[in-house]
Amino acid sequence: MFYRQSGIRHRSYVSDSKLFPIPMDRNLVLFLFLLGLAAPLLIDTLYLNSYVLPWLIWTAAALGLNLVTGWAGQLHLGYAAIMAVGAYSAVHAARFGIPWEFALLIAGLASAAIGSVFAFAAMRVKGLYLALTTLAMQFVMDWVLSHVPAITGGSHASLQSPPFKLLGQPITSDAGLYYVAFGWCVIVTIFVLNMRRTGLGRALVAVREKDYAAAILGVNSLYYKIVAFATSSFIAGITGALLVVTFFFLASPEQFSVTVSVQVLAMVIVGGLASIIGSYLGAALILLMPGFANSLFSATADFLGWQMDPETLAHIPNAAYGALIIIFLMVEPLGLGKIYNNIRDYFLVWPFDQMKK
Prior knowledge:
Elements: H1 13-16, H2 23-37, H3 39-42, H4 45-71, H5 79-95, H6 100-124, H7 128-147, H8 149-152, E1 159-160, E2 165-166, E3 169-170, H9 174-195, H10 199-209, H11 211-216, H12 221-248, E4 250-251, H13 258-271, H14 276-304, H15 310-331, H16 336-349
Antiparallel strand pairs: 1-4, 2-3
């Protein structure tokens, strides 16, 4: 009824490859965009800063990792290290008096330079071997952040972020910081949406499916792997910098540990490889669900009058959260994005699919 294709005729390749071939998709995206713009007026400040803002930033990170893992098919377990390069590069650049606009650009370029090194490793190893290689690079970065005081100030030190300014205007309000995160997430989403329709997107998919077959078809695997890693790392660098200046307000090594790399990869896998809506849903599930599960179990225990040990009550939500992830992946191994697509595809033909029953 909503996703009706009646009257939509594709008479040319251009019309068939439009960003939103079905008007309902465009209307839904426009509605969500307007909802995002109005979020500071509709959501309490506490929830806006504690849940929505970090969700948008981590969604941008998941989209960046999805580019190299979902589209190019390269397992990456060192994504947090790349984010750390961008975060510390931007903070140090801002501390030297460089405007934040250029500091963020420096963060992206520094991360892209470091991230491109992974592409050369990807030419020698693949699959789990590449994942282990990137994990080793994550450990190297963890050691550098902990043992090079010139970068971080020491293993347990925190590097304070300078006041955040854009176009000379200080961004200090909660709504202002939210709009920065919202704007960056929108930019990354638009880029990835359009990348799917380009020769770059098709070449990355060819490399993902079989790089030898892609080479036979004239696709330079090394070039496109470098592009995938560099572009993904550029997004990671700016995302890491924005995470520090809009949410943490300081940079420390613990914020970019190997656990964070696994967490971002979980967002991509649970959400769905090469799925844009899946990146949003996966980031929401991994980032927000533990807090909701904890609140739900605490409220249930209080309502039923259960007397539980605090340690038990603290671990039950984590167990339920883990079980929920397993259930989602068992129901749909392709992730939450595929569940959304299944629902959407159902409405494409409803109610006419009932005639065959």
